[in-house]
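Example protein
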Amino acid sequence: MKKLMLTVMAIGLGLLLVAPSFAFGPREGKSQKPRYGNPDATSRSYCSQPAMSRLDLTDEQKTKIEAMHLAYQKDIKPIREKMEDKRLELSRLWSQTDPDKKKIEAKQKEARVLRDQLEDKQTAFRLEVNKVLTAEQKEKIAAYGWGKKSGFGPRGGMRGPGMRY
């Protein structure tokens, strides 16, 4: 009887300790699954499949936009790689026992320059895509709010469990 009681208590304690981990549910990583019942929640960019399907593009428009998107991706890849390198270098500088303020500030300035370059390329790409669209398609984009960040606040994203920072 004593062994049975200890076994039941051990299982109960184990379940009690594990239960909070199930409270948040599965994490949403980089998958293309709909979030919170919204089929377009992962696709607020100009060139995602759900976004493009809402615009009723012609085959010619699809071809042009896909070609522009491939060129854009090829164009920004080196900038993204440099940004990742700067992020790693900054991480190394911060992990030192006595971080050098001047080196950190210099790396941050370099990262800001790269971020500005990336935003300039993104703006140019969006303007090029806009040239391909008809007036009705542009109205749909404005009404749907593509390119805006979701969530609350000036930067868009909500903070909390499960959000990637």
Remarks:
- The domain at 42-142 is CATH 1.20.120.1490 (Four Helix Bundle (Hemerythrin (Met), subunit A)).
- The radius of gyration is 24 Å.
- The mean pLDDT is 78.
